[in-house]
Amino acid sequence: MRSIGVTGGVGSGKSVILEYLRDHYGARLIVADEVARQLEEPGEACYNELLELLGREVLGIDGHFDNKKFASAIFSDEKKLAAVNAIVHPEVKKYILSEMEKEEKNGCRYFVVEAALLIEEHYDEVLDELWYIYVPEKIRRSRLKASRSYSDEKIDSIFAAQLSEQEFREHCRYVIDNGNDLSETYRQIDELIGQ
Asked: Model pTM?
């Protein structure tokens, strides 16, 4: 089984890459953000610790975390954000490794993980290779304005919080340029899979 980590800045089109790998190569996909949300549900691995850390004021009436309250509680407080990450990221990684083991036993050929913090969380130590999805900042900015209606200020703060292009390139074995026509992106993927 070949295990691949897919990363890149916000607006780089990682979901397009994942869909192509799933639809054309039958890859098993795991998106770390989705796993994290699942593990934050009542009764799941991270729920009680997060509740203890953040308090009941971040809950909705249904007992689930309210996304807006949760976000405002942690993004204005670096210590809280670090504490949340220290609870969630190890559990996400544990889940991914257990799924990877299962898929290998089931004869899966391609196991693909997408995570914003692949590099920071040292997934290079557990996956065969990391792919950096590169798109020039100008294109990413216009995509984020069009698809998510983000302001320049919001985009600036997101970009500032992410790794630089140089850091992505230093840590990833392969770079896919997703700033042009999609057929060119797909050609690059086919070439990498063929290696």
From this structure: 0.90
DSSP tag of 59? B
| Average of per-residue pLDDT across 89-109 | 97
In whole angstroms, what is the distance from residue 171 CA to residue 129 CA?
A: 10
Helix (H) or strand (E) holding 38: helix 32-39
**Residue carrying the six token digits 């040292």:** 122
Same domain, 101 and 115: no
Q: What is the CA radius of gyration of the chain?
A: 18
CATH of the domain at 190: 3.40.50.300
Do strands 129-134 and 174-177 pair parallel, antiparallel, or not at all (unpaired)?
Answer: parallel
Domain of residue 92 covers 33-108
Are 171 and 116 contained in the same domain? yes
**pLDDT, the chain, mean:** 93
Q: At 175, which helix (H) or strand (E)?
A: strand 174-177
Going from the C-alpha of 111 to that of each of 52, 69, 114, 150, 184, the distances in angstroms are 34, 34, 10, 32, 23
